[in-house]
Fold this sequence. Notes:
Structural class: mainly alpha
Largest sheet: none
Oligomer: single chain
Number of helices: 3
Distance between the termini: 69 Å
Amino acid sequence: MNYDLVFKEIKSLPVELQKEVLDFITFLKSKQQKQVTKAEREFGYAKGKIIIHPDFDEPLDDFRDYTK
């Protein structure tokens, strides 16, 4: 990438647009940080914290009238 060209183009913008470019760069960097954080999660970190009861798939008593 030709950084001199990038800097030249940014300098040619009005000050308000230069501020928008800076805001966008900040946004991209924060987005990248979030992706890195997600990638660092450990597989199985919630193991044993969620319990599914054996009767999970059984019909609920509240809906017996609708199943007949």
